[in-house]
Amino acid sequence: MPSASETGTDLTSRNPYGHGNGVSDFLSNVSRFKIIESTLREGEQFANAFFDTQKKIEIARALDEFGVDYIELTNPCASEQSRLDCEAICKLGLKAKILTHIRCHMDDARIAVATGVDGVDVMIGTSSLMRQHSHGKDIEYIKKTAIEVINFVKSQGIEVRFSTEDSFRSDLVDLLSIYSAVDQVGVNRVGVADTIGCASPRQVYELIRVLRGVVSCDIETHFHDDAGCAIANAYCALEAGATHIDTSVLGIGERNGITPLGGLMARMVATHPEYVKSKYRLDKIKDIEDLVAEAVEINIPFNNYITGFCAFTHKAGIHAKAILNDPSTYEIINPADFGMTRYVHFASRLTGWNAIRSRAQQLNISMTDKQYKECTAKIKALADIRPIAIDDADSIIRAYYRNIQSGEDSPLMDLTADEAAQLAAKEKEFGEVASA
Amino acid sequence: MPSASETGTDLTSRNPYGHGNGVSDFLSNVSRFKIIESTLREGEQFANAFFDTQKKIEIARALDEFGVDYIELTNPCASEQSRLDCEAICKLGLKAKILTHIRCHMDDARIAVATGVDGVDVMIGTSSLMRQHSHGKDIEYIKKTAIEVINFVKSQGIEVRFSTEDSFRSDLVDLLSIYSAVDQVGVNRVGVADTIGCASPRQVYELIRVLRGVVSCDIETHFHDDAGCAIANAYCALEAGATHIDTSVLGIGERNGITPLGGLMARMVATHPEYVKSKYRLDKIKDIEDLVAEAVEINIPFNNYITGFCAFTHKAGIHAKAILNDPSTYEIINPADFGMTRYVHFASRLTGWNAIRSRAQQLNISMTDKQYKECTAKIKALADIRPIAIDDADSIIRAYYRNIQSGEDSPLMDLTADEAAQLAAKEKEFGEVASA
Are the beta carbons of A309 and B47 separated by less than 8 Å? Predict the structure, then answer.
């Protein structure tokens, strides 16, 4: 009798919350979210960041070309140059809306609206710790000030968001009370910020879901990555009804930063490819990351989402075999969507003969399965005594092929006497394993 | 009237799933999980990895000293050297239990148990894609073979785990049927593997929670990071009742790897510090990461959890002010637990005067608040025209202090004529802002 999964073609329909036909969330915005790109605000708080006006303009244009919905800029009150840069970017005529991020204070608000931005992001700390050690204000004061600032910004005909800071260590009743009050005076978005990176995915889901029932405006979320959950938290927030996600290029920001733009794209394209691919120029991610990495003098991490050097490299024998049959076996993201390429590693002790056959065929060398297997055993034998490069593996494949064509037995590679002796011993072992 | 949160001292008790007294999960193992460290198995599948015997032993000893519960090694059938290394590590007499990871096949099992390991991790692909493109077997065959292998390994008096591969794209009914069958023959652990990195946190929570009701054995989980959820998924798995988490140092593994050991520690110490700090030598994380990074020739990512160069660097003015009052305002992780130090950045255009006062006091310079503010305006003015180093800021603080002591007005720094002119203009602007 065929098992349950063998009678249908939908591979995952019976996974809880599975891709495809799984249980879906009524509140979910995963297939219609918006990006508030904050490299020029949160990212400017990164330890290494110093963007001059030209660099800010270059980054803003690149983000606009990528297709982000909003670009958020540093508070124009932070410094005079910050204010001038804000004005300059507003004048570029980008498709993305331009926001600036201010403290919940009328002085800041007046300076912000005068820059020409499309919207103002207002924030204030609401946790007891923040209230005690940062601004020292109580909840009623926060509510009153927030409403004053919101009404002022709205009166200027532009968007306004109100966000709490350190939302996940704030009292739930206080939070909902403030959000409800600002929603009632017509704020465009409320913001929930995991300023210190403590939130866990289910905690995020629960808080946003509750908030979704309290306010009718949009919900923006901002997640720091101190505990490794920034991308996951953004995803869960969208599942619970959040509408906007804050990102920065490579995640740069205070401490080790926030939800990275590229990482968010990896998460979203893996589950909702149509929306992401139709809206954003995914093939621009690498250029944008290179631009920002150079500006802040960092290297792209080896394991960066999408653009890390090994993101699409397959090594283990059984992985390589399946990938060569059907890439989706071990890939949820098509590297071609990002202008990247797949690489099947075939020069290690973990190499399988399917990978070697594939490589030989790329080299226009055709042999029998038995010959591919024997050639693979030789490559594995050498890889077992020292690291080998692709060229080494190619040399062995070519020399092995020449040997079987000519009937002669010439050396497969240039080796030291010691390596040759070790290799001979290894080949004997692998030969025994192969023939066992 | 004081608001709700102001009447109590527990800051977060009313957050859903909040830290402290929030709603707790009956099934949760977040405060009693175990680590299966797989740098020497999954990590060996990383594109750059080649570990010789000495390096494997060095890594195994370091992980043992850190306190991981298990160390998992490459399949001894992968190559003859892999088998010899496995035997060598078993003979080290480590506190950690030694496991090896094999295909679900009697040939592999016989070679594995002969190495002297404490347990064998058996795995087989169960998704339709894996069954079609990898091993080509049906569910009944998988079940039968699994039971044969499990019974054999158990008969040798050592632990045995059975894991499916690509579990999140497998049919739920097939999965539960196989797990239930192996649980009934007494497997020690079942393994759930997100081999391709597609799982989302709530999907993980749901699957593990259902599985927790089906099997009585331990539950191990293995998460790849392709979509940025590896740490979050591990956390949600523990919340749902999983008992063991697979990690590797820096997350190295196939493609861009799995849940990183350091990142998992960041997540767990942020919410359950007592357990993590009592069980693991957190101060060894940096040494272990340096050891592995050097062995596989990669740089520690700039934003690495705990040990990245900016993980504990604070820059924005309001952050710096609060951090100097109470570090927990913006830190969920105490850097000292990991032998790391905090750094409050005070030489940028975002600098606030609290940070400058703190730095001046470190330099044994005491001034009035008005003087600190004026000195800060000068530093911000310079930082607004070019990047400045700590030394530059220190120079300005010292020169400013000398000037007010001596009543003379000497230059604050060596600047080019152009810079001096720009600075004079900026100082004027900042002076106006400061006195406004």
Answer: yes
Per-residue confidence (pLDDT) for residue A133, from 0 to 100: 63
Instruction: Tell me: do A173 and A275 sit in the same domain.
Output: yes
CA separation for the pair A332, A343 (Å, rounded)? 15
Residues B158 and B253 in one domain: yes
pTM more than 0.90: no
Is B286 found in the same domain as B375? Answer: no
The whole-angstrom separation of Cα B159 and Cα B244 is 14
A20: nearest CA in chain B? B169
Considering the domain architecture, whether residues A127 and A196 belong to the same structural domain is answered as yes
CB contact (8 A) between residue A130 and residue B322: yes
Q: For residue A92, count other CB atoms closer than 10 A to its CB.
A: 13
Residue A242 lies in a domain: yes
Least confident of A221-235, A327-341, B276-290: A327-341
Q: Give the residue among B366, B30, B397, B262 at the shortest CA–CA distance from A227.
A: B262
Verify whether residue B319 is a known catalytic residue. yes
Last residue of a domain, one of A254, A278, A296: A296
B81 has a pLDDT exceeding 90: yes
Question: CA-CA distance, B121 to B133, in Å (whole number)?
Answer: 22
Span A129-153, average pLDDT: 83
In A, which residues are within 8 Å of B422 by CB distance?
Answer: none
Same domain, A72 and A218: yes
Domain range enclosing B394: 346-435
In a domain, B311, yes or no: no
Both A225 and A374 in one domain: the answer is: no
Contact by Cβ (8 Å): B259, B224:
no
Examine the domain organization and report whether A361 and A260 are in the same domain: no
**Span B111-134, average pLDDT:** 85
State the best of B164, B303, B333 to mutate against chain A, taking most chain A CBs within 10 Å: B303
